[in-house]
Every structure is written in C-alpha cells, then in structure tokens.
Design goal:
Layout lengths: L2 H12 L4 H8 L3 H9 L6 H11 L14 H15 L3 E5 L2 E5 L7 H16 L11 H7 L10 H17 L10 H14 L3 H4 L2
Antiparallel strand pairs: 1-2
Helix pairs in contact: 1-3, 2-3, 8-9
Amino acid sequence: MDTQGRRIKKLRLAKGLSQKRLSDMVGIVPTHLQAYEYGTRHPKEEILNRLAKALDVTPSMLQPLDVDTVNGLLGIIYEMHTSYHGLEIVEEDGQISIRLPNTLQAMPAKKSLLRIKKILDDNTYQPYPEYQSAKDIQEENQILPNTGVTVAQEKRWVKEQEGLLLRATDLYSPDVNYNQIEADRKALRKQYPDDSEDED
C-alpha cells in the first residue's frame, strides 16, 4: 500500500481542495495527481516540493516512508498524530514507546494493534527441523551480505511473515482483498523459495 499517495490525498481533502484545483496550483494535469494518489506513479522531487508547498507541509512529509530515517519516522509520526488527534513519545529504561491517546479517533488503531499482538504472540513457528545435517547447519549460519543476519534468521522471518499474512485476514477492511494477500504470499515465496521445493 502506497502511504505517500494516501497522505497526499488526505492532506488535499483536509484543505478542501479538489484534484483539479490542486493540480492547477502545482502545474500538473489532474490525471497525474490521481496517479500519485493511487500510488501508480510517484512524483519527481520538483513536483513533490510544489505539492508540499500547495498543501502547506514540508516536503519530507510527502516522501515515501522509511522507518530507518528521521524523515520517514517524522512522516509516520505526523500521520499518526493528525489521525489520532495526538500521541505521546515516551522514553523509559532505555526503551522508546509511542502511546496513543484515549480519543475516539485512536480506538480503532488500539483495537487493531491488540489483534496484531495476539496474532504475533500466537505464532508458534519452529525454525529448525528435528534433524539437520552439518552442511545444512553451516549454510543456515552464513551471514547474509550487508545485513548481519544469518540465513536461518532470514528464513524464520519469511515464514513468520507468511504465517502472519495467512492469519491476518480479519485485520483488513470488510472488503478483504484476498488477491493481494495471495500475491504478497507468492512474492515472499518467490524471493525466498523453500529449499524443500527445490529438491527432486
């Protein structure tokens, strides 16, 4: 899901602007803005800067979200703050937490987070089979380049993600997109094929 497009649309609607009006302000055709909002196209930096100016936000608020960067986190925090009418960032014993406020707007998010927590807590995937050859153990202990993560850890994460996708259909809106869920599962399998499927 392209959160950049959702943010552009949300900010546009919050300012009471039609797609035509915002397009005119930015100097693009409405079909381009529509494609940005749907996530089928991404604006170049110059267009992004003009969109940000027209929407009265900093360009970083419209950048694609990346949880490893300050700008990406700022965009996430900004969206949460505006959606839930405030939030609190708390530091305790060296850990950072985000607390959602006790507002009506934040209740659906709180309920969804509790359901996600239950799904993750219930995930009982066992990463290792009962028997592994010395070669299997050696291969699974190899570190993936530029990650510091072993092959076994990466496989475990992929299996957990696949399990989460299978069990998380109730987290989607009532019109569940089963095709998208299946596409996500296939993409994970294609990227990290199970060794057992390769054996003859």
